[in-house]
Design a protein that fits this description.
This protein is mainly alpha-helical. The protein is built from 13 helices and no strands. Helices cover 75% and strands 0% of the residues. Helix 7 packs across helix 8 (177-186). It is globular and about 70 Å long. Belongs to the NrfD family.
Amino acid sequence: MSNSQTKPVDPVLLAPILHTGPGYWFLIGALSAVVAWGLYAWVHQLLEGLGVTGMNRPIYWGLYISNFVFFIGISHAGTLISAILRLAGAEWRRPITRAAEAITVFALIIASTQILADMGRPDRLLNLLFSGRFQSPLLWDVMAVGMYFLGSIVYLYLPLIPDLAILRDQLPATTSAWRRWLYRVLALGWHGGFEQRRRLDKAIGIMAILIIPLAVSVHTVVSWIFGMTLQPMWHSTIFGPYFVAGAIFSGIAALLIVMIGFRKAYHLEAYLKPIHFSHLGTLLLIMSLLWFYFTFCEFLTAIYGNEPHEMRVVLYKLTGEYAPFFWTMVVTNFLIPVAML
């Protein structure tokens, strides 16, 4: 054990790293099967062409772009919970910040893979990087997501340095050599001194300030991919804040689901307490009301204007073939959260 100032931690927190039960390996196997299935489908798409997805004129965007928007939205959990609450000095955030920050990075990775699949041929990404036109919102999106991803990795890693030092110092001697080496390298020589803590807190504070506008810009630019077109109900100035509000809404919901699962699976009742779920529930209620406000404004404007092309889309959603999906969205995004919270 090195000469560090890391304090002993509750064995409950180290248990998931030291021991893996049958449930863990069952989950790994099930997820590996899903990934293998996805790789098979992707190879089939590469061989047969993008037409196998059902996308064609005029249906240019399908499940891939829907997944991209969804996971970009999920990634906002880390920004809201960790960055904004850190700057606001909300101490209750501490037990949940790691999960929030990790969700951001993982969701961005998944979102990026959706773009690769949607392009049909992955080599076309080089055309966007080397021959892209700055007038295109697609190029803006690549730049925004790339910067947000790099910033999120740094923002996740910085607070992890003291935790990595704990793993370096307190894992048992029977731990494999490569894991001990990995934690030693990632801990960057952390010993918990005053000057180290001062510099780390300053770096985290700077990243917390930088990551918020990056996150807002990402989903704003994603909304512009739709809003810059002349499609009815898409060509709207409200899309930027509408997408950001929806992203934060879905991010909080994702964080709650992850917290419930981790609390149950790893017996973290002493750390993830009812007060954390209460505060997150309040934030979820606020975002639900904000989402409904933007949705109401969007439809009120379209209905009052009574423009034929937009009314066609409105009726498709309210009473047409998409009505079951629309009203299910209203019930699950607004009525149920308001009634429960």
